[in-house]
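SgcQ protein
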Amino acid sequence: MTWLKDIIGTEKAIIAMCHLLPLPGDPYYEKEKGMDYVIEMARKDLHALQDGGVDAVMFSNEFSLPYLTDVKTETVAAMARIIGELMSEIKVPFGVNVLWDAKKSLDLAAATGAKFVREIFTGVYASDFGTWDTNVGETIRHQYRIGAENVKLLFNIVPEAAKYLADRDIESIAKSTVFNNRPDALCVSGLTAGAQTDLQLLARVKDVVPDTVVLANTGVRLENLEQQLSVADGAVTGTAFKYDGKFENQVDINRVKEFMDKVKAFRS
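Predicted structure tokens:
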């Protein structure tokens, strides 16, 4: 029995991404449409995901491209407003992810009552965003300082668009991450959003940390979900739920229903 059952209500949980459009301060923010439009699009996606039967949702500033590793205050403020306006309509457990800033993700969780955050908490990477450093000791102390100690931490140990600077295999990373940091879950990803997570990589991680929740973090689709969930304890899914399976599109409730029907059949 894992915490997924307590917090989300089921094992083999599907956490669906609610991708927010560009926000104030982002290069592609549509000023003429403003925040009301961003909120309306988030509302549509949230309802499509919930009505389609997902187990949980995670709000992220997915379209704040290109990403920062030290996120600006205006981004967190905008995300808090969106979640605040949708709060009475959120019917499933939810988490947040302020890309790519662990402390800001925790700030947003504390402000909104999110149950979990997903972030890059550990490691040093060569990435599309430059040299990407972390400070997990400071991040966890910040979590306790702001009263967010009950927020579950989903550690992404294979960040998208980045490579670990040290020459370490995935088993070493998984084992030391669990030993040193006690993550609530490890997330294993493909190269970019929507790219399939390597099944062998998932299996190697799960084998060395059998008592830790391991999530397939990208690329779980209708065609491979049984295969992925036979190894992973759950999945974080975004692109698969969108019209035509395209990252930039809105959520298609029919794709969500078809996917979740298959998940429920697999679970039973």
